[in-house]
UniProtKB/TrEMBL annotation, chains A, B:
Protein name per the record: glutamate formimidoyltransferase
Highest taxon in the source lineage: Bacteria
UniProt-listed SMART domains: FTCD (SM01221), FTCD_N (SM01222)
Gene Ontology MF terms: glutamate formimidoyltransferase activity
Domain Formiminotransferase C-terminal subdomain intervals: 181-295
InterPro entries: Formiminotransferase_C, Formiminotransferase_C_sf, Formiminotransferase_cat, Formiminotransferase_N, Formiminotransferase_N_sf, FormiminoTrfase_cat_dom_sf, FTCD
Length: 296, 296
């Protein structure tokens, strides 16, 4: 059975569309690789690229794109609202089908080593690929940004996983990682009272005592006259969608507020939906192998 | 995006494993085609084969298998409990991914014509591929079986869609069709009273006034000490799983019997699960394109 991964490299260029075009060129019309989206953001001055495909073919394509980004982007003159440490800022590998996290970590190690060896850019492994717990959190790795990296890399605690202890002069350092797919999941409440969304978000998110893999906050949908609990489910296997949804319903009862429904922003892995179906239909002996398309 | 179909040819040989092996040989180790299962049944003297893959490659592989079945099976000496009209009895094409029913009907027409032209076997198109409403129901097409086909084909109403009005001497006639995937879905009731399963099956099935696309009956699971409503969902798009499940729960209340859960036998299309998720989570603006794997 074919293995499929997703990869979401972030490049520190969000304005010059010609440069962006050149960077993503190696990801296009390539056998075994499908470019899903290229999303430049002018304010962030950053482009998020989304591809899926066969593991080694994705790795090879991304390796080439990182090479081009290294040539075209000079962080000494880069300004943008999003923090960054490299011309290629981060490259996360994400297991999608018939592949374990372990194999995605291997891909991160392989790519990280090649980026350091061939492009002379120091590399940090992060999230699931991190070599120590201080490097799991990307924000901690990136702290100090491009401008602070020369100093940071002198600290033995921040010796890069690959490459020298000196940032690349124009391309900085790169974070290469492995993680599960994020699910952006929002739940709509039948009220205009943003405080209710705030309280429910607080009840379910990890940072204030809720579920381990939920990040949540309130949002106002003024046009619709409702509020929303807006979430990132960072591990849908351990905090499944149905559990969050039913908990939000349960909390909403305190306020006499109806849950109107929900929405998924972007994409969701088939397994995340199937796990919730297993709950609602009380499916016995269900496994992903039962899903017809899993056999491809 | 790749198109994927399923095909479930039924061959009238369920005992001689050597013959079966020869018939399915063209379906093995073939690029773009995956053989999911080969299930011979001795009592039926019939083998159900399950393959998925790229439309034209599946068609070509099945065409070859039908040729071998025509050489190896002589219906004049075939005995079995399952009714049959041909050495290759039926060949249904089933849309799975990025393909419409219309295209599966085209495949049925193409294969039907080739079987008639090259193997000299008359062909009836059935279900979605049927050319008139009398031929939609496979049981009506097959009525009279192999032994009665010579007589049946003389009736102008039963002129085959392709080929002559005389059955093949040893291979009879073949039904080639197009249909949606069946979902075999069973719901468990917390009681030993089979009459309750009977009554609920009656309430939900088409034949006695229930849902248009549900076939249902009762079953006893003696080892578990429970009963089951056992179903075939013949169109999961028009009668979705959640609707059947919630209706069975609603009916079970009449008897004070709990619904313990459910099970899916064999495979289920991703879309059938996703449609039920849409209901339970009240998902706004959901489409199959949001499922990560749909982009492959």
């Amino acid at each position: 059975m074919d293995q499929i991964i997703q990869c979401v490299p972030n490049f520190s260029e969000g304005k010059d569309l010609e440069k962006i075009e050149k960077i993503v060129a190696p990801l296009k019309n390539r056998e075994g690789v499908k470019l899903l989206s290229v999303e430049p953001d002018k304010d962030y001055n950053r482009t998020v690229v989304n591809i899926i495909g066969e593991p080694l073919k994705v790795l090879e394509a991304v390796y080439e794109a990182v090479g081009i980004a290294t040539e075209l982007i000079d962080l000494n003159i880069h300004r943008g609202e999003h923090s960054r440490m490299g011309a290629t800022d981060v490259v996360p590998f994400i297991p999608v089908k018939n592949i374990e996290m372990e194999e995605c970590i291997e891909l991160a190690i392989t790519l990280g080593k090649r980026i350091a060896d061939d492009y002379k850019i120091p590399v940090f492994l992060y999230e699931e690929a991190a070599t120590c717990k201080e490097r799991v959190n990307l924000a901690a790795v990136r702290k100090g940004q491009f401008e602070g990296m020369a100093e940071k890399l002198k600290d033995p605690q921040w010796k890069p996983d690959f490459g020298q202890c000196i940032p690349h002069k124009t391309a900085g350092v790169v974070g290469v990682g492995a993680r599960l797919p994020l699910v952006a999941f929002n739940i709509n409440l039948g009220t205009t009272d943003i405080n209710i969304a705030k309280n429910i978000a607080k009840a379910i998110r990890h940072s204030s005592g809720g579920f381990r893999y939920i990040k949540a906050g309130p949002a106002e949908l003024k046009e619709k006259g409702i509020v929303q609990v807006t979430m990132n489910v960072v591990n849908y296997k351990k905090t499944p969608l149905y559990r969050v949804f039913e908990t939000v319903k349960m909390e909403a009862k305190r306020y006499g507020v109806p849950v109107l429904g929900s929405e998924i922003i972007g994409s969701v892995p088939m397994e995340a939906l199937a796990m919730s179906m297993e709950y609602y239909l009380g499916l016995d002996g269900f496994s992903m192998e039962k899903v017809l398309e899993s056999n491809l």
